[in-house]
Structure of Sensor-like histidine kinase SenX3:
Amino acid sequence: TGTVAVRVHASPLPEDRVLLELTDVTELHRVEKVRRDFVANVSHELKTPVGALQLLTEALADAVDDPQAAARFTSRIQHESARMGRLVSELLELSRLQGAEPLPAFSPVSVDRVVNEAADRSRTAANAKRIALHRTGESGATVSGSESQLATAVGNLVRNAIVYSPEDTTVTIDVTETRGWVKVAVIDQGIGIAPADQARVFERFYRADPARSRATGGTGLGLAIVKHIAGNHAGRVEVSSMPGNGSVFTLLLPSVALSARESAPPPDEI
Ligand code: ADP
């Protein structure tokens, strides 16, 4: 099923005839709907923290004589404004990735360096939950790409692994190279993802557990950004998970050697 736009032209045909012009506008309608849904989602996502900030600042103003309550409100104001800041910067990031700006120049990037730096940046967050962050498999692999985009992609996966894991667990970031494909696997022992949610978590604003995502400062955009970055690098991102048994997110990228040869499709089993 689709949508057809009909236009009736009177001339230049003989008087008892008209010319019907049929145009398939299915794709146009779909794009329009995606755009409307996106604007509605963004408005909703911004309304929640803005509403919370309004209430919290009023409460703070009323709490002048209660320093403990004032401290509580202040910390929640900081949390909500930080989340709003992340939302706005991730929206900008996503719109850049979706082609609003030209792609950055690609150059050879060391995957080990990107991964080691992402691990270093995540140590404070991991330590706060006594999560052991392991970095395994120095591959020596190089991909052709944007170092800052790849750092964002790996950083988002590691951040999620920490956020969606309980305390005293382990997060492992493993890098391997097989048949010209570099595999970055982020393995956690966290809450896991139900099969029905696994395909959808890469959609913008989709969350398996909205309340939990918001409470942890999530924007619902992190994995959509990872998926775009993987696509920009002719790669892909996948998840394998069991609820209650942790998740493995895998970023698969063609290595420089393979992109030069332009051969073999990505392995089926990763
Ligand atoms: P968010 O900001 O909500 O974390 P993401 O796009 O990064 O947004 O992730 C989308 C959803 O996927 C999350 O809300 C969460 O439900 C689920 N998710 C992502 N990573 C993990 C993980 N490592 N373990 C369990 N659930 C995850």
